[in-house]
Every structure is written in C-alpha cells, then in structure tokens.
Specification:
The complex is a heterodimer of chains A (334) and B (325). Chain A has two domains: 183 residues, Rossmann fold (3-Layer(aba) Sandwich), CATH 3.40.50; 129 residues, 3-Layer(aba) Sandwich (Rossmann fold), CATH 3.40.50.920. Chain A is 37% helix and 20% strand. Chain A has eleven helices and 14 strands. In chain A, the strands form three sheets. In chain A, strands 3-2-4-5-7-6-12 form a seven-stranded mixed beta sheet, with helices on both faces. Chain A has a five-stranded mixed beta sheet with strand order 9-11-10-13-14, sandwiched between helices. In chain A, strands 1-8 form a two-stranded antiparallel sheet. The mean pLDDT of chain A is 95. Chain B is an alpha/beta fold and 325 residues long. The chains are: A alpha/beta (334), B alpha/beta (325). Bound molecules: thiamine diphosphate (TPP) and magnesium ion. Thiamine diphosphate binds next to strand 3 and strand 5 of chain B.
Chain lengths: 334, 325
C-alpha cells in the first residue's frame, strides 16, 4: 500500500493488536495517557488492550462499570484537566448513551468557552456488523461525529492504519472518535514496528489507482470495493479506489483531484444510506465538481433498516461485492 | 455515616475573620451583579436566559472559599456566586453575560453562562444539566493520577440530582475514593415543579448512604456554615478518603429565569426568606460591611459600563476555537 511503504521493519499482527501496540508504545512515552473502559484491564472485549494492565498497572488501565455516559464524561473532564484519556466504549451504538458527553462536552467544550487549548481524548468505537450482533450492537455511527463539529473522526481499514491512526490520535490535541471495524478485529496485516508510524488524520489514500471512475470508501468496505474493482477490471472498467481513513477532516483535495480526473464518482459504506457519510460526500462533489461529472454520483450503502439479528438477513442489509460491481457498471456504462 | 443537622454548624475549622471579610466581599460582588443583571434584563434585550441566583449566594461563596486556587470547580448556571467565589472578577463575568469580547469566553458563553478561568480552577459549565458529575470526576481522577492533592467539586441543583450521571459517577467515585465533592444547592424547585413532588426523599443528602459516603445537610443561607462543611469534605478528599455529598438548603428568591411570572408560587413565599448577605454582615463590623458593599457596587457599575461600551464580538468569532491550533 502506497502510504505504508516505509523503511521501517514490519510485523504481521492483527488489526486490534496493532491498535494495542500503538497504545503501549505511546503510554511508555507519555505518563498522561490512561485507558478506561469495560473490561480493559482484562484485555477488553475485543482484545485490543491485551497486556496493557500487566505493563502499566490498574491505575492507568482502569476497568469501569456499565456506565457509558460516565466513561465519556470522565474522558472530557480528564482531558480538560490535561490528561490524555483513551476510552473503549465497547460498541459504536453506545455513542448515543454517552451522547451528551461526546457530542456536547468533548466536541464543544473549548468552543463554547472560547478556549484555544489542547484537549486530547481518544474514544474507541468498534462499529459495524459482526454476524448477528443485532440492531443495537452493529451500528455504524461514524456519521454522528461528522455532524458535531469539534471532533475528529477516523475509521482505519487495515492493521497498519489501525496502528498509524492510533499513534496520530494519541498525539492529536483534539478529541478523536476512533472507529475500529468489528469484522477486521482479527485480520492480520503487515504493521510497521516502532512508535513513529503515523497515519496523519485527515489524509486519504489511493488503494488502487484507476482512470474510469473514483470509488470512495473506508473501513469495512475497502476490501469488498477492491474485490469489485478487480472484477470490473476484466470488463475494461478501471476503478480508482480511495480509502478515506478520516471522515473529519475529510481529504477533499485528494477526492476532488481524483474525481476531476475520472469524471465519475461513487461512495461505498456500510453505514445506512439516508443522511450517511456518502450523502455529504456526494453533495460536496456535485457542489465542487459538477461540470467535471459525466454521470450522477452513486451511493452503495447499508439499507435503511435496523440490522437484523439473523446473520443471513443481516448480510442482505450491507453492501455486497455484487452490488458494488453493479453500481460500478451503472456509473461507467450508464 | 449520615450526619444531617440542618442549620447547625457541622464542626471542623472555623473561619477566621479575614476569611469572613473575603466571603462577604465576594458575596457583595455577586449580589451587586444580581442587581445589575435584574435591571439590565428588564431594560434591554438579552440573548438566552438569565437565571437569577439572588438569595442563594452563600452556598457558592461559602463552598468556594474552602477550595484552593488549584482545585477544580464545575458549577451549574444559576447566579454567579461560584465564579466570583473562586476568584473571577466582575469584568469577564459581565462581559460574557452581555456577549462582549472582554468576557471570559470572548462573548461566546452568554445566556447560560460558561465562565471559565483554568488558572484559578474555574473549569467551565455544561448547560446540559448533570454534565458536571463525570467531568468533575475526570478532573478528580487526573489529580489522583498525577499524585497532586487537588480536589474537584461538582455543583448542581436539587432537580439535577435525578440525572443518571449522578449515579454513574458517584458509584465509581465512591469505589475509587476519588477526591470529589458533590455539592447540591437545594432550592426545592426545578423550574416550576416543587422537588417534593418528584423526590422520594426530603434530603438529597440521603442518597449518600447508598454509596457509603458521608451525606451532609447544611444551612445554605449561612456562608460560614457552608464553608465549614465544605472544608471538612475537602479535607477528607485530600486525605484520600473519597467523596462527600453536601446538600445546602437554599432559597430561590426570584423566578427560574428573569421574567418568570412564578404563578406556581404562593403569594407569601418570601416570608420564609433569610438574606444570606445580611446574615453574614451581622458577623462583621457594620462600617466595614457597608464599605465593602459600596466598593462592590462601584466595581460592578464600572465593569457594567465598560462592557456595555464594547463592540460585539467580531463575526469571525464563530469559527474560532473549534479545533486547537
Ligand atoms: C439536561 C437538561 N434538562 C433540562 C434543562 C432545562 N433546565 C434548565 S434549568 C432547569 C431546572 C434545574 O433545576 P435544579 O437542578 O434544581 O436547579 P435550579 O434551577 O433550581 O437552580 C431545567 C429543567 C437543561 N438545561 N438540561
Ligand atoms: Mg432547584
């Protein structure tokens, strides 16, 4: 991958372990970082914090009760007081339980107090389907962070980015909603060793260069999009696949450069279609590059329904490779 | 370990007379701002709502007098006794209320006030009630992790004691013995609903028992009694003994917001009112008290004039301070 091409050594580890590695390395360098959440001291529900408590003790790796509003509010208060809290919220769905703390306090505190001071806090939201977790444990809630200015929003799609974006988030002087992708948790990838592997927040990357159309995606849909692009290549359609990686700030220059070159664009995400991130992206593209477009900007997104508990029904609700391929044809052949 | 003696001095260190004078001076400033705002809201347009705190000043003044400069304060937005008590000057306070650049928030934190001054531990305000609890706990945890002996105080109203965050936070603060003070100003009203209609207990402090922490009821009209109760709670918190829930019984003299016709209140409700300023003045030399009052009035009048003379914030203010940098 273009962005992780580096002199550094790499190591094959899972996506979650990569996040954990970034945390360990940063905590060694910075006493003000602490981790809190449900079961984090025992390795977390998803294992990203494994071993943290052994190394740093339970004063810095703190198990909390079932108390999402408290966890996020505590992060805000600790950050206001100059600490760098990392909170594992367990599921993105729980953003709503801690809505006041995340979208009013973390997002607005400095703004409403007229303060230009650093405020570091990383809120980890595991998002997306994981084969039947049901309507309240599978949501893609990343769009919420786009609608409440003051937060940064990232969604890594590879193990290397999981580490690189976590490294960046831990040094970021603004609160970050860090969305980890449930289906990628245990997927392995080559991850640069060392604590200086930064993936800058706000920078997208081209996962597959192409000339027929621009496919904009992130998180769980990067891999299916690349597969779809592979299939379409056999039909003479050459998709450029861009992994957004950050939704706030979003890398408009890279997006618009690509669209102006390919003259066609589609957005693919697992989050629901209506008022999802793709709605904003499509609207922005037509505002900025309408006269460069040969056809309407398409969206392939999650169905506008609560996600069913039944695994087979759930699969019908999120974009498949076949749907992406079909949209790619429609986009390029009309 | 619930020791509830309404109106009685719960013991602990007695304030010396310099402290009494300082409390009186700050309460006088608070009262002068109350009077200034009452007039201002009557005669001018006002963005948002002004929630008058007149009559309730002793709670914030007494409690903040027991706090150290570097202790963290998270307050609720009735009146301005907490910000003044912690050491803010009338200028930045009125500046915010009038939406002027000289306000502590640069004019952003008007209607429901967001006064802030990190240097003296005034950490700001969340206008969604009940946000104080976890935020103050976060600051308390920060102090604990750094090994300083700072404490954090969360101030809230009786109505706000029903928020879920009250419980979520106190469960952890009690279990972890965080240096956190819960300070309730019970004025027996949440807007126009009397607390007794919606509360299973007469005292909010009763909840403390469930968390195995001390719950203290104190006469909130008496700044000296409030000081003493708070000083004791802070001493416990600094010694690593964890949180205390203090409930100050206070009196909301005016409506919920300036202009509230208060149809819901008995016509003679003011009969029960005891003026906290007069109560404290009676313990000071009379001339000294009146000199302090005159000074406070003059200081507030000139701060008000200065703020009124200012231009509104520049339009580009709306894009400032969203992200650091
Ligand atoms: C979460 C939330 N709910 C409702 C309100 C609207 N509100 C503002 S003040 C208030 C009454 C609060 O009562 P109390 O906590 O007793 O404080 P008091 O007004 O008596 O000082 C209400 C309901 C709010 N600001 N935030
Ligand atoms: Mg009340």
């Amino acid at each position: 991958m273009a962005d992780t091409q580096t002199m550094a050594d790499t190591q094959s580890i899972t996506y979650n372990a990569a996040m954990g590695q970034a945390l360990v390395e940063a905590m060694r360098e910075d006493d003000s970082i602490f981790v809190l959440g449900q079961g984090v001291a025992t390795g977390g529900w998803f294992g990203a914090e494994k071993g943290l408590a052994d190394e740093f003790g339970t004063d810095r790796v703190i198990d909390s009760n079932i108390s999402e509003a408290f966890e996020a509010g505590l992060a805000a208060g600790a950050a206001i007081a100059g600490m760098k809290p990392v909170i594992n919220m367990g599921f993105g769905d729980f953003a709503l339980i801690a809505g006041d703390e995340i979208f009013h306090k973390l997002a607005k505190w400095r703004y409403m107090h007229g303060l230009n001071v650093p405020m570091t806090a990383v809120i980890i939201f595991p998002i997306g389907t994981m084969n039947g977790a049901g309507p309240e444990h599978s949501s893609c809630t990343e769009v919420l962070g786009m609608h409440f200015p003051g937060l940064k929003v990232v969604v890594p799609s590879t193990a290397a980015d999981a580490k690189g974006l976590m490294c960046a988030a831990l040094r970021e002087p603004n609160p970050v909603l860090f969305h980890s992708v449930n289906t990628l948790s245990f997927q392995r990838g080559d991850v640069p060793t060392g604590s200086d592997h930064f993936v800058p927040i706000g920078k997208a990357c081209v996962r597959r260069p192409g000339s027929s159309a621009t496919l904009l995606t992130y998180g769980s849909m990067v891999e299916p999009s690349l597969q779809a692009a592979g299939q379409l290549a056999g039909e003479g359609i050459d998709l450029e696949v861009i992994d957004l990686r950050s939704l706030v700030p979003i890398d408009w220059p890279l997006i618009l450069d690509s669209v102006r070159r390919t003259n066609r664009a589609m957005v693919v995400h697992e989050a629901m279609k209506t008022a999802g991130p793709g709605a904003e992206i499509a609207a922005h593209i037509q505002e900025q590059a309408f006269f460069d477009l040969e056809s309407p900007v398409l969206r392939v997104a999650g169905k506008d329904v609560p996600l069913p508990q039944h695994g087979a029904l759930e699969a019908l609700c999120i974009p498949s490779v076949a749907e992406i391929v079909a949209a790619g044809r429609q986009l390029c052949l009309g | 370990m619930n020791d509830q003696h309404p109106g009685k001095n719960p013991g602990g260190p007695a304030p010396d007379s310099d402290l009494l004078k300082r409390m009186y001076q700050r309460m006088a400033l608070t009262r002068a701002i109350e009077q200034c705002m009452a007039q201002h809201v009557r005669n001018n347009r006002f963005s948002g709502w002004w929630h008058p705190g007149e009559g309730q000043e002793a709670a914030g003044i007494g409690a903040s007098a027991a706090m150290r400069r570097d202790d963290y304060l998270f307050y609720q937005g009735r009146g301005c006794s907490w910000a003044i008590g912690k050491g803010m000057a009338p200028g930045p306070i009125l500046g915010d209320l009038l939406g002027k650049p000289s306000g502590s928030t640069g004019g952003k934190g008007g209607g429901v006030p967001h006064w802030v001054d990190y240097a003296i531990g005034v950490m700001g305000e969340g206008a969604t009630l009940g946000s104080v609890y976890p935020l103050a706990a976060g600051a308390a945890l920060a102090a604990k992790q750094r090994g300083t002996d700072q404490v954090a105080l969360a101030n809230f109203g009786d109505g706000t004691a029903a928020r879920g965050t009250f419980h979520e936070t106190l469960v952890h603060a009690a279990a972890w013995k965080l240096p956190l003070i819960y300070f309730c100003e019970n004025n027996e009203w949440l807007v126009g609903t009397p607390l007794k209609q919606v509360s299973p207990t007469e005292n909010i402090a009763d909840y403390a028992a469930g968390y195995h922490i001390p719950g203290v009821v104190v006469d909130g009209q008496d700044a000296q009694a409030v000081y003493t109760a708070t000083a004791e709670a802070i001493e416990r918190a600094r010694a690593g003994e964890g949180p205390t829930l203090i409930e100050a019984k206070v009196f909301r003299k005016h409506g919920h917001y300036a202009g509230d016709p208060q149809h819901y209140r008995a016509p003679d409700y003011l009969d029960a009112y005891r003026d906290p300023l007069a109560l404290l003045a009676a313990r000071l030399d009379e001339d000294e008290a009146s000199a302090l009052w005159a000074q406070a009035e003059a200081e507030v009048a000139s701060a008000y004039q200065a703020a009124m003379a200012e231009d509104d914030p520049a339009p580009d203010t709306i894009f400032k301070d969203l992200y650091y940098g």
